[in-house]
Structure to design on (377 residues):
């Protein structure tokens, strides 16, 4: 049977990144597919003993071999810095490396030893994904509820063009349907005109320009499909893009960022839809970016991007591209680290590879250790 070698677990408010997005750690089971780190280098060729350098680490989705949960009463050790946060039991395995240029290897130390010291914490990793994208995207058939017959003819578009179009639509599009206007799609221009018009031409969609709006249609099959993505407060990313290759994910992100993002003041992405917020964060993580999430008080925090007001509720901040966050300098170590008494259940999955999972706490993501389990003969 499996026995825990150390009770090193997370506070129940921790979330784990899975193939379905973020899941509360208390809901993780051995059937879940969680993000974990693997060493793809050759330890024998390393100059120093220890863990792997950043360039020899990849992330993969795996099933936990076991899940630890037990009642705990006592101090938890925490971190709440600008780009990283956790709250764990004292002997939890913290994935880190020293805060100097000479320190290249990543490995785990217990939370008590790390507490209050100069450290670098991993906040991003490259995912090992091999996905072949289809050449085209076909709109799903709509059928009559009574007869079961197809209601529209099949429409297909070049896959990459459809990906860019969906970014336009989710950021600034809507479907108009009334007695006067039927099955018409409207996209408001926030990016260079040629970028939108070239994409619509690639898809074979006729359009007209009215001021800063692109009027497409009437197109009944496409408008019917787009209505399934809801309105501004509940829009979401299509499943086909969430499961696409890394290159396609980046194409979608680059396009939607041109519409609703702000790379000058952040870089930040703004949305009013909680589901779209989660989907964009998921794509950023899968493409190797570090992300922090926060909510805006729109009454107090007024922001503008290229002269237009930003009214969105949620802000996704794409952190710096180094892949790690530095904590413990003389400016912030005494406020970033903290201790907190806790009484209740703590949790942790055990995964193969380096024994490190992607966690989120207080809106900040960090790769961190898990409970090591061994087989007891």
């Amino acid at each position: 049977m499996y026995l825990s070698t150390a009770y090193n677990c997370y506070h129940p408010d921790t979330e784990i990144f899975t193939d379905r997005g973020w899941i509360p750690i208390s809901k993780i089971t051995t059937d879940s597919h969680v993000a974990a780190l693997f060493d793809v280098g050759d330890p024998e060729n390393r100059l120093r003993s220890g863990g792997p350098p950043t360039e020899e680490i990849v992330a993969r989705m795996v099933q936990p071999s076991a899940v630890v949960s037990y009642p705990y009463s006592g101090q938890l050790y925490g971190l709440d810095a600008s780009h990283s946060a956790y709250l764990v039991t004292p002997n939890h395995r913290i994935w880190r490396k020293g805060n100097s240029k000479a320190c290249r290897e990543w490995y785990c130390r217990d939370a008590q030893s790390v507490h209050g010291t100069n450290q670098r914490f991993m906040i991003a990793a490259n995912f090992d994904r091999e996905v072949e994208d289809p050449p085209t995207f076909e709109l799903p058939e709509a059928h009559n509820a009574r007869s079961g017959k197809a209601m529209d003819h099949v429409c297909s578009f070049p896959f990459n063009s459809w990906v860019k179009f969906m970014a336009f639509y989710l950021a600034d599009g809507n479907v108009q349907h009334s007695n006067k206007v039927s099955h018409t799609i409207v996209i408001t221009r926030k990016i260079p005109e040629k970028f939108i018009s070239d994409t619509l031409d690639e898809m074979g969609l006729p359009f007209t320009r009215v001021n800063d709006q692109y009027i497409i249609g009437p197109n009944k099959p496409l408008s019917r499909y787009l209505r399934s993505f809801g309105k501004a407060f509940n829009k979401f990313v299509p499943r086909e893009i969430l499961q696409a290759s890394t290159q396609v994910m980046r194409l979608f992100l680059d396009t939607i960022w041109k519409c609703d993002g702000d790379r000058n003041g952040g870089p930040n992405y703004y949305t009013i839809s909680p589901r779209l917020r989660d989907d964009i964060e998921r794509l950023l993580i899968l493409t190797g970016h570090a992300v922090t999430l926060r909510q805006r008080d729109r009454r107090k925090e007024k922001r503008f991007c290229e002269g237009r007001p930003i009214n969105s509720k949620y802000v996704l901040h794409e952190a710096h591209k180094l892949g790690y966050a530095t904590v413990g300098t003389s400016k912030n170590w005494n406020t970033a680290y903290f201790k907190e008494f806790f009484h209740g259940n703590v949790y942790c999955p055990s995964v193969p590879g380096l024994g490190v999972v992607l966690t989120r706490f207080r809106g900040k993501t960090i790769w961190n250790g898990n409970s090591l389990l061994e087989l007891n003969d």
